[in-house]
Structures are given as structure tokens and as C-alpha cells.
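Regression report. Comparing outputs from two consecutive submissions.

Submission 1:
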Amino acid sequence: MKRTSFSRSRALAETSLLPEANEDSFSAPVPAGVRDERIWFPLEGKILSSAETIENTPNSESETSLSPATVAEGEAHIHHDHDGHEHDGHDHAGHDHDHSHEGHQHGPILNPECVREVKIEAPVEEVDKAFARVVREYKKYAKIPGFRAGKVPESVVRRRFAEQIRKDVIEQLLPERFRAAITAAGVVPISEPQLSGLTLEEGKALEGAAVFEVIPSFSIDGYQDVVVPKPTVEATEEEFQQELTQLRESRATVEPVEEDRPLVDGDWAQISYSGQVQDAEDAEAPPVAGQDSLVEIGGKETLPAFTEALRGAKAGQQLKVEVVYPVDYTEAKLAGKTVAYDLEVKAIKKRTLPELNDEFAKELGDYENLAALEARIREHLLAGKQRRSEQEVREALFAALNEKVQFPIPESLVQQQIDARLDRGLRALAAQGMNADMMRKLDFTRLRTAQRDSALSEVKTSLVLDRIADAENVSVTDEEVDHEIYLAALQSREPVETLRARLTQDGGLARIREQLRREKTASLLYQRLPAA
């Protein structure tokens, strides 16, 4: 077991699980007597909203390319690649794909104030041509017993592959007609379109309606007058001494105590241990065990139960202790658990801090003497305080801007941001050792609800910053984007061009440019604030 099993360290406050993105569609009630077929059809290329938030929103495959329609609720995408594709003669005649949706709602609820609807239409001539093209392709490649390839009668093809043919016609017509509809309406969707009331039959015109969210129009008048306190930041002598002490402690050595005496506060106990979790669910779990671990007696990072058990013990002594770990303990497998330990004190050690002199400074780096090291520490301390202060001021400024500028927020963007925040928490939990079984026990509904206010604020901030960036003519150069890609490549240990190609394909380059633009806008607003 790692030394953290004896420490007080808490887990990250934001710990959560990211549910899979909901691919079902939300739709309005359907008039009686009208067959409702709800179809997700992504547009060609990712729709980059000007409201993607500070977090990188998860991408789905449907956001990056034109793909087949999903027909009815729960059905998978079906796409016929007719280039060398062989149909197996499966008879779909009589297969009923019409599902009842009465009283059943799909997908995330949209904000009514941000919803727009467009009519999707195509004349009967265009519909009939699309059916004819698809039927010709099926005739060319369909293989049905009793017929030679390419010689299957059209009537047989239409009967055998009626459902697939219809889906392929939908795939051909809907994206193009939808793009034409939103262009004519002058709107830019920021959520997947949800189709209802579809009429698509040979000999009839295409009719349907698509519903989606847009970024509403809003005014940012008066944003220049929003002011928050911008304090002057200084580093105190006490803070400098704390930094210096922490530096010395990081270079401390631990040496055996030769005299025969008990453990006292400030000592380090070298112990071996074996513990069993006192929980019926973990009865078969292997013991929590380790050798030669160091525990600081009375240390601020040491759990009180270990300090109390070890204080006063001598080398060679064996002890028993029961430890109750906090529910938010860093190691997820121990969080909220009670563990009964058998301990053996193997040695008592004392930590010795190095002297503060020129030699100490030179050991730490390219410092001529102690004075040079101290100057660098002061610079580092002040820079850190300035960064934290600037972040706090920015957060206050964002809150003030959000209060000043009022407008409805698209719900789809809020849900994307909740997903991003929960994904970050999930990754933190996984890094701490929480397995899938533990994650399944999390209350997803509560976690999403807890993230909502922060997610909504972040989305609104991004929308406001985008609008201010437009007003201020803020732009991002290719060189600035290249620099971000270079830094990301260093962090991911990936060749720059490989990363660039991947980002280009999944829309990441556009998101980087958006984020840089928001960052530059926020910096511009911060710099304009008067010093307190």
C-alpha cells in the first residue's frame, strides 16, 4: 500500500461519471393520424457553435461527417455501400418498423426560447428520381436465388428491399433539403435536428419538419461598463518563508534513530502492515499490505488513528489498529471503508533538513549563491499569486457580465458542458483507482444536477465572450494556433503533424481557435479593469 493510505488527503471534490451521450431524438407531440418517423441526420461536417464552452465538448462520429439517417426510435444506422456490396436476399416484406410513440419522449429537452423549426420539402419529381436511382443500384448488386446478378426484376427488388430503399432515399434527400431549408431561413443549428411528420413515398412530395436549437439574438450593450475589483498583489515575508521551508523539506533526508526510545511527534515510523477491509462485500478481497512504509507521527497528512496507535511505540513492537477512512478519501478503494491493520514497527527515523547556504542553492540548479535562489523563489511566489488573483478577478468579471447580459441559454449546450465536467471527474476517479463496478454505484441523476449551475454559467460566459470578441474584432493568428498544437503535442508525446491531422479531421482545430479567441477576449477585458 502506498503511503497515501495513512494520509488525510481528500479526493477531488468534483468526482462523477459520464453517461453515454443520448442519441435518441426529442420531438413534439404528433397530430392524430399522422405517422411520425423521427430521424437523426447529421449535417456535412461538424456544426461548430460559437458557444462551445471552456471545456472541450465530446464529439460523436455523427458530428464529423455526413452519415445515414437513423429511422424510428432505437434503430441502428443502416447504410448501403453499393460498391461491391452483396445483398443477401433477406425478405423485409411485412416487417413493421412503425413504433408507437404515444406518451413517449426522446432525448434531451430543448429550451423552447431557443428552438427553431424549418419545413423540409422536395417536389414529387425529385422524390421519384431519388427512388429510381436507388432502385437501379439495388438491381445492379442484389443477389436473389433464382435470378442472375443484375437481372432481378424491379418489382422483386422493390418488394424485397423496400425498407432499405426508403432509408437510402432518406439518406440522399434529407441532408441536402435540410441544408437548403436552414439556409433559406437564415438560421444555424447548434443541436442535432429532430425530424417529425415525415411523408416520403413515391408519387408524393417530401414533407416534414425539423426542430433544433439556435443561439438566440441578444445585446451586449454596456459590457464596457462592467467593472469588478482588481486588487494589487504582493508576496509577504511569511509566505516567502513558507516557500523556503517547503523547499528545504523536499530535500530533507531521513536517517535512523540510534538511541533506544519510543516514537514521538515529528518522527517517522518505518512499518510493515497487513489490513483487511471490514465489509461483507470485500470479504474475499486481498489484504491491504505493504513493507517498509514511512509514516510521520503527528504529521498533518497522517490520519489520526495511525498517529495515536504509533505514538509511544518502539522498534520491534507489534500493534493492532482499526482505521475508518473518510468517504472522500483519495484512494477510492478505501474511501468510506473500515480497515483492521496489524502493524510492526521496524525502525524509528528522523528527518533532517539541509542547511540554508550557497551549497544548498547550487544543488538546486544554476544559482550562483543563496541570494540568487531566494530572489527566484520570491519571483515564483509573486507570479503564482498574480495568476491566482487574475483568475479570481476573471471569474468575478464573468459573473458580473452574466448578470448584466440576459438571454435564454440553449439546453443542448448546457448538457454538453455537463458531460464535459462529468467526464473530467470520471477521469480523476479512474486515475485514483476507482473501477467500473464502483462507478456504476454513483447517483448519475444527482451528479448531473449538481453540475448544472456551473455548466450553465460556463456556457453563458462563452456565448458572451464570443459576442464581445465580435464587437472588439478579436482574431487569432495561425501562428497562435500552431503554438497551441505544439504544446499539445509535447504533452501527448505525439508528432505535431499527426496531432494536427487528427485535430483537422475531428474539428479540434476550430475548437482550439475558438478557445484562443475567448482567452484573448477575457485578457483584453481584464487588462482594461482599473487597479484597486
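Submission 2:
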Amino acid sequence: MGVKGGAEAVAHAARRYLAGIGPDQVLVKLDFVNAFNSVRRDAVLEAVALHVPELLAFATSAYGAPSILRFGQEQIHSKEGIQQGDPLGPLFFSLALNSPLQDLNGEFISGYLDDIDQCREWGGRGCDRVGEF
């Protein structure tokens, strides 16, 4: 995180890697739909506790219980996802996704928030853990 030119470096590395892949390899690109709203809050809290425990109290106060969203007399209990506008939202999302990404097999794996690239042999073990977060 916080590497200047990091996204550009990943793009160049992917191009270089793709130039040399064999005919039995594929590049799988995942772009999660509505990712920040869909991430499980328990996965976020578990990841925060593991990786940045100094933020756990803040994360628990924000995501430890459903948020009540009000519109006039209507109330919606928000139980999943990162709240829009949370400055720590991208960090929390990335932390929750870290464990499933670590379990992926492939010669080239890169990720930026909800965009994941994986190069692997055709027919190999897929992204079966990604849905867990």
C-alpha cells in the first residue's frame, strides 16, 4: 500500500507477463460488482483484528452492529458492506480480501481494491475462496 506508481507498475508487469504466457494459460480478471456494499462485516472485523489491531475499536464502533439508515419515517438496517464515504473503507475492504487472495494459486496474481487479475493454467483451481469474504 502507498507505493508511488504502484498501479502503473502492476499494469506493466501484467503486460510483460502476458507477452510470455503459453497457449494453455489464461488471464482471469475479476471486477466485483457492488463490492464495497457486499463485503461481510465480520470478515472486515476479523481482518482488522489480525492486521491492524490498533484500528479494531474504531472498526467495531462503525461496523460491529447494523447501521440505521433513515429516510423520513422509513428505516433500513444496513448489515453488510462498508459505508460510503468512510475514509478507511478501501483499507477495510482490502484487508477482508487479503486472506482469500493469499489462497489463490497462479503464477501472476495482482489486485487493486475490487479488481483482481490471476494468470493460471486452463482448468486449474479457480477462485473458490473469493466468495467467502
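Expected: both submissions complete independently.
Actual: both completed, but the second showed a warning that disappeared on reload.
Relevant detail on submission 2: The longest strand covers residues 25-31.
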